Amino acid sequence: MLLLAVINTKNILSCLRKDLREMIDPDFQLPAKLMSQDVLTDEDRQKVKRKESYQERNDELLNFVIQKNDASLVVSQFTGCLRDTDQEHVCNFVNCRGGKQTFYLV
Fold first, then answer.
1. Torsion of CA 54, 39, 65, 72, to 10 degrees
2. Could you give the CA distance from residue 83 to residue 31 in angstroms, rounded to a whole number?
3. For residues 72 and 9, is the Cβ–Cβ distance under 8 A?
C-alpha cells in the first residue's frame, strides 16, 4: 500500500516544469495515451509533435496539461498516463514534488 501526503496539484507541474522538460519521453505512446484520457486533443498532439527538440515538445505538452481547468484531475490523469507508458520515475517525481516529499510503502 502506498501512502502519499496531499500535494498541491494546482501548480505542481508548473513548479517542476524545468526538470520535467528533461525527464518526460514525449514521443513514445504518451501523447496517444493522453488523448485516450481526454487530456489532449488530436490538434494538441499534432502541435506537440511539430516541435523540433525534445525539450520543446515537452514544453508544449506541459502547456496543454497545465492549462486544463480541473488541475487535480488532469494531474492524476497525467501521472496515470506516465505510469501506463513506463515512465514511473517521472510519475514518482511529480508525486513526491520533485523529491521534496517522501512517500512510504506500508
1. -140
2. 13
3. yes
Give residue 101's pLDDT.
56
Give how many domains the chain has, as a whole number.
Answer: 1
Please write the tens of the pLDDT for every residue from 38-64: 889 999 999 999 999 999 999 999 999
Which triple of cell numbers denotes residue 73? 484531475
Q: What is the pLDDT of residues 5-21, one digit of tens each?
A: 444 555 788 889 999 99
Question: What is the C-alpha radius of gyration for the chain, rounded to an integer number of angstroms?
Answer: 13
Name the residue range of residue 93's domain.
2-105
**What is the C-alpha to C-alpha distance for residues 48 and 12, in angstroms, rounded to an integer?**
21
